[in-house]
Amino acid sequence: MIFGKDDPAPVLLEELEDGIGGFVIQEALLSDGAGYSVDGVGDVNGDGLDDLIVGAPLSEVMGASGAGRAYLVYGKEDGDPVALAEVELGIGGLVFTGEQADARAGWSVAGAGDLDGDGRGDLIIGAPHHSHDADASSGRAYAVFTGNL
Length: 149
Prior knowledge:
- This protein is mainly beta.
- It has two helices and nine strands, in the order αβββββαββββ.
- The protein has one domain.
- It has helices spanning 13-16, 84-87, and strands at residues 25-26, 37-42, 51-56, 69-73, 82-83, 93-97, 108-111, 123-127, 140-144.
- Keywords: Glycoprotein, Hydrolase, Repeat, Signal.
């Protein structure tokens, strides 16, 4: 995550490791594909800071390989890294988990605007390999209303 700035000088991504100009979002599990998809979603939790959704479509969920995850990461003003393992514990965000092996939830993620008219931004999470009945990899998308999170 790179914070906005007035200076036109390039931002070196390695500087983000030190919290200079933004912060790094660290994977929860090795090879989980965290960051495969990322989007800004507006201020979901009402703290005045915009939040992010981060897809990790290769994550294992309760033994289901490749079920996938999507992380709602709350906005912040400091440069400390965000550990998605902590988000899984409810620290600094929320996690959404795929329903079945190889569903790849989090392959695509996006802010969806205010779908339900409650004044808060909602989310879309794609799971392109989710299987419905005998239809292998028929896919599924989830619209998440955030007002009750």
